[in-house]
């Protein structure tokens, strides 16, 4: 994946979700993405809405990255690389070369933040399946006006719903696990009846 920007990485990850949905014998399915995975899930919904009943997009920083994203990212990644638990988590997820992977991901995100690029390959108004935008009002990794951004996005997406949690951090699906599970299950049941 050398030379891919973060946008194209999220698009490629969306294509991987599509390939998995095509391969599995489940028919239309629900797709949940959190943080960078939320961008991938939305890309998948834009590309192949026929494969998904609905998408839950949790704790992502909108259509572009916020002005202080680069500073927050560098501070978060430096702290994470110094923390033994975070290091173990990265190694578990990425393997023994996790530090190189994290550094490359960080560099791609910093480039994307500097370029202030639009993060989706198609207009969001083309999403025709139910979409739940979920986040926490106290998410330290996302912009401070995340709810306002979600409202602006939802205004262009016919079947969008927003759920903001008062407490918790990044991602909301983890830091508000029980509430998030309840909200997601309700959203899925409602989406299934449409």
UniProtKB/TrEMBL annotation:
Residue ranges occupied by any AB hydrolase-1 domain in the UniProt entry: 14-182
One Pfam family named in its UniProt record: Abhydrolase_6
Gene3D superfamilies assigned: alpha/beta hydrolase (3.40.50.1820)
InterPro entries associated with the record: AB_hydrolase_1, AB_hydrolase_fold
Protein name, per record: AB hydrolase-1 domain-containing protein
Naturally occurring in which organism (per UniProt): Pusillibacter faecalis
């Amino acid at each position: 994946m050398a030379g891919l920007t973060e946008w194209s990485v999220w698009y490629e990850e969306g294509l991987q979700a599509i390939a998995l949905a095509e391969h599995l014998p489940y028919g239309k399915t629900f797709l949940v993405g959190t943080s960078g995975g939320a961008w991938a899930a939305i890309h998948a919904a834009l590309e192949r809405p026929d494969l998904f009943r609905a998408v839950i997009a949790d704790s992502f920083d909108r259509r572009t990255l916020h002005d202080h994203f680069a500073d927050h990212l560098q501070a978060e990644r430096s702290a994470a690389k110094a923390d033994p638990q975070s290091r173990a988590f990265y190694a578990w997820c990425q393997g023994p070369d996790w530090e190189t992977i994290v550094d490359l991901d960080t560099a791609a995100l910093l480039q994307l933040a500097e370029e202030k690029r639009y993060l989706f390959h198609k207009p969001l108004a083309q999403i025709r399946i139910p979409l739940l935008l979920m986040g926490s009002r106290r998410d330290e990794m996302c912009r401070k006006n995340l709810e306002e951004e979600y409202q602006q996005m939802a205004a262009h997406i016919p079947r969008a719903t927003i759920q903001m949690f008062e407490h918790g951090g990044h991602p909301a699906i983890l830091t508000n696990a029980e509430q998030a599970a309840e909200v997601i299950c309700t959203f899925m049941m409602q989406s299934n009846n449409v």
